[in-house]
Amino acid sequence: MKFSLGCIGGSLLLTITVALLGPSAMVPELPGSAGQPPYSLGIHPDGHLVIALAAAALALGAIGLLTGLRADGPHPRLLVITGCTVAAILAFLPPFGSADHLNYAASGYLVTHGFDPYVTVPSDIPLSWVEEWTHTPSVYGPLATAAQALASWIGGSVRLTVFVLALINAAAFIVTALLLHHATRSDQVRQRRAALLWTVNPLVVYQLAAGMHVDTFAIVFMVAALVVGSRFAVRRGILLGLGIAVKVTVGLVALGPAWESRRNLPRLALLAGVATATVGVAYWLAGPHAFDQVLNASKSISLATPWKLVQYGLQGLFGPGAYRIWIQIASLLLFVALAWGLVRKLGQDAVAVSLAFVVAWLFASPYVLPWYDGLAFALLALIPASALDGFMAVRLAVLSFAYLPARQAQQPPDLGWLVDVVRAQLVPWTLLALTVALGVWAWRGAGRVPTPPGSAAPRPSAPSPESRSPSR
């Protein structure tokens, strides 16, 4: 375990270092006084150096995670304290990896100045400090927009707005860590694994704590909804609704509690009604255009997915744009097949079903980015270990290398192969092979009960179909 902890510690230190060095190819410039948070050394390091440091952080993090999940380790409380401390430190350093936080600040600015971020785009003002998506309305839910507006109102400047958002992000990350630690308190082995999958997971820290993506804010509500338990349908429904009001795609998690409550129709109706009402009120307050960009984004294809390879082939047959409907249909069929196989493999409790649908969506969706995987790791931490841990660790590592950095415009010209070769060719083929392997694993031997870590396998009284209950 010392080797694993060394790799994890080295990765976390490198992640902090990239942010601490200040504006670079990895770290966007933040307008405002350098004496205000987020703080950095302002060294403006060479792009090759920071990309190499980030690559080393990802490599060490992947090795540390994969080996750490297979070994004993320190008391989980120490891991939780370490991870929460790192998240708190990163809140005071500039976010890096992408320029999404500048778009969050732009949405907050638009709201506080009387504009609708679902209609008005940064280029309309214009907001010169926004790097990307300058012609695109907000794709995030009304609760995310409200948090961005609050940060803008409190901070005033771009720099302080980002800092307030970083504090919110760190708080969500830490609360999620504490929820997972509490939910697995009956077994120290499971607590340690939960901390490795979320709190000190270098890949998750890199993407969600250092990257400061809105996904962290959505995840905390969904984890809380699952942890609160099925007896509290109203609380669970409100929490699910709030998570969806941050980012609509996390609504897949709601399928788990719904499936678990299917034999208790009054509870199911109450859960669905409360969640729907919460989402409905939030989107009603946001206005009629809050879903516009979500619908547009559903037709997009990101460069690092296997579907980009399919797109290249179909363009010649159907011409520009005509291929999209076929990719949407194929991705939906793949999603259903993977989800059904994973449900049979993982089991039919709320967390297992939620995880099955989330993982199926991540592997089947034509548009995914590495920080989307954070939701799956949070849910993984709530169930016993299986090969799915390894599938997700490899997937997040591969996707993270694909977007190194996500700020393509700031990448040194001689590193263009990171996009043309790694992101556009190597990663899609790797993810295609990983998807096939996941499908084979999900459908092979589905229905057998796994043995939770630290417990003895149950001994069936007699061989029968009933003894083969669904497993994770």
Query: What is the average per-residue confidence, as pLDDT, rounded to a whole number?
Result: 91
Q: How would you describe the shape?
A: globular
Continuous helix count: 19
Order of helices and strands: HHHHHHHHHHHHHHHHHHH
Task: Please summarize the sheet with the most strands.
Answer: none
Distance between the termini: 26 Å
- Unreliable stretches (pLDDT < 50, length at least 5) are 449-472
Structural class: mainly alpha
Helical content class: 55-70%
**Count of β-strands:** 0
Radius of gyration: 22 Å
Strand content: under 5%
Q: What can be said about this structure in brief?
A:
The chain has 19 helices and no strands. The chain is mainly alpha-helical and 472 residues long. The relative contact order is 0.11.
